# Entry
Amino acid sequence: MKNVLILGGGFAGVEAAIYLRKKGFGVTLVSNRDYVFVYPVSIWIPVRKREFAEVCIQLDDLKRKHDFEVIVDEVQEINTKENKVSLKNQTLTYSITS
Ligand SMILES: Cc1cc2nc3c(=O)[nH]c(=O)nc-3n(C[C@H](O)[C@H](O)[C@H](O)COP(=O)(O)OP(=O)(O)OC[C@H]3O[C@@H](n4cnc5c(N)ncnc54)[C@H](O)[C@@H]3O)c2cc1C
# Structure
């Protein structure tokens, strides 16, 4: 199985993760927070129509439902010459295949 590394767990990253899992790829998603923040709904927080927690979807829940890996960590550097992604707490390597 080919594996895909996705950096960022917002709408784009999570949508890509779910789509690629459905297409049979293994997926590892890296994000610096353990939830997706649903920005459109967040406008209701200041007027107290929504609580912060209601505007968050836990990545763990999405991971269980869609069967992808999640690493909660901060991306610090993407080194495309050495195919390395430096996170605050570990370094990931990747290869590019067609
Ligand atoms: C108040 C508000 C209302 C909006 N309403 C709408 C709407 O009604 N309709 C609409 O289409 N769009 C709306 N948008 C825009 C929409 O939210 C964005 O277009 C969308 O969130 C972009 O998704 P994204 O995944 O590209 O980026 P983001 O949602 O910004 O996701 C990026 C992710 O990467 C993570 N990340 C960032 N840096 C790092 C790092 N160094 N290491 C690891 N992880 C990192 C972040 O934590 C985040 O989870 C709204 C935006 C705002 C602010």
